[in-house]
Amino acid sequence: MIDVLRAAWLIARKDIVVEIRNRELAYTTLFFAVACILVFAVAFVDDMGHAIPGAAAGILWVAIAFSGTLALGRTFERERQSETLRALLLSPIERPAVYLGKLAALLMLMFAVEAVVVTLVATMFQASLGRAPWMLLGLVVAGTVGFAAVGTLFAAMLARLRSRDVLLPMLLYPVTIPVVIAGVKGTQAIFAAEPNLDLAGMWLAMLISFDAVFITLSLWTFGPVMSE
Amino acid sequence: MRTARWLVPASLAVALLMFFRAPYLINAAPEESTMGAVQKIFYFHVPSAIVAMLSAIVSGIASAMYLRGRRPMADHVALAAAELVVLFGAVVLATGPLWARKAWGLWWVWEARLVITLIMWMLFVAYLLLRRFGGPGSDVLSSAVSLVGAVLVPFVYWSVNMWRTMHPTTSVVPSLQPEMMKPFLWSLAAFLAFYLALLLTRVRLEKSRAALEQAFLALED
Amino acid sequence: MTTAGPGTTAAAFDDVDLHDVSRHYGRRRALARVTFSCGRGQILGLLGPNGSGKSTLLGVLSTLVRPSLGEVRYGGRPSSEWGDALRRHIGVLGHDLFLYGDLTAYENLEFFGRLYAVPDLDRRVRDALEAARLTDRASDPVNGFSRGMRQRLALERALLHQPRLVLLDEPFTGLDDESAQLLTDRLKTLRASGVIVVLATHDFDTADSLLDRVVCLREGRAREIERGGGPLRERYRQALKESWT
What we know:
Chain B is mainly alpha-helical. Chain B has helices at 4-28, 42-69, 72-104, 112-133, 138-164, 178-220.
């Protein structure tokens, strides 16, 4: 068990080092997320300059989902260039470690992007971050983990295919709809004029269950799926 | 599968007989108070949805077995069940709006069953596309898709139900009157028999295709 | 990671057997009933036209590709019995070089060294860099390297953990004469230390003096060519012309 975690950490750390050097992924993901927010803001802000109630939460999670899919695609595209994913699979570390390592690295990237995105959405839509910061943090973290858990599995298994750029969104979006529903509804409950923290907590519970189930499922499926 | 020999025509016969009798039963059933005759589409709509969800679970279980042991029959069942999710899901998605339009004036209702069918339908269409365009090895990859899909079913129910409890749903089945329950169960049984017939036939077709491929390969030896 | 002490090599295998190995993708047969074995201190060459199954066969030997039929045994035990530990004893140099462009030469070796739990890592990495003649470029990112430099580094990466079985997919491609000579010497040293080397190549001239055994592949079928009796190129062409039943 420790070996798996240690190996996963090695892989995650390598990805982070590469990303810090390269920064391509961080920049593109961030800019894409911001562009998403701006586009949706145009749609959901009325002539008086007020956002439709509940829009802020929706915009936030759409930006997370879209930029997350982009980041996923790009992460594995990079591994594909020198077939380094295959090199990882050739090494003696257990398959679940490869999955966890890539997952951890992706999560760190997404959290970094989300720090900016959440602040931006809160500022632009006058949503108070201080009202229930831990609950909001919990929702964002749990939702991102759920998204990334399935995303890493699908992106890795599609990496070899030519049609991966088309297939990844087609597979990922239907599966992550419960995550988005929970994230949006939970965030709305926090941002609302009268915040309902109990309701937000219920959504958080759902997200945590989702995460637990799908990380387990992905860990179990990753090995068999990645061997030809 | 030796049992499939008699099972296919048997279940097909059962299904056809039941479908023949069904309209009489449905006609005899009382009309629902608010919606009138249109509500009777429910006798096709809901069983289709149940069969679609069932098929998703069958596909998921078969995929899990395939990933474990790589037995070809598991893959055949997974593929056949996936296609039937798309088929019966299409029925649900077509009849749902028709019903909703006449009953409530809307083309679409954000109701748990419709949403989950839409998601499942999209996912299994993606499964079929992956099989078609994924090249060699796509049988293993698509197994992951249907497995995730099957596990997803309760979560979509959970999330959409929780979402929609703010606005009451037309959750109908448990509160059915006995006179409506009989044609509904009849219809459900007919759909299940029909599903079984289709599944077994499709699996047999897939088995034949695989056997043909084996023959091709053996020819080259 | 379980520490890899000197005792690890004792847990490796002495031979690799392929028995009736077939691999098909739908209707396309990549490998058809391939059977041969190789032992320690041997360099076995895989020759054949493009698309004959060389890369697939190397993939099967590396455990990445599962045979559709047949079995591969390492030291008498099938790969399913070995589990993840088997890969500790296998080193692969592929077409694509398995190097991270954004990391430096040192970092690439260090990363993979850690994955393989190579002991005394720093010294081994430095030795490897020296063997690749890249010591002065150790801190440079790999994406600035030439093809030849990358290849040398990739070879060291494959050998860093002192594998018992080394698989090389057309390693002489694009190498200049000096590098090719260095590679040949390196492979001979490996052979002398009891490593099993399997390499796929088109380079007949180099191969002629290097290979102990030659297996020809054509449309997925394998056939061994006998040693001696003329230059390799001629024997290879002759073998391809004959009918293989």
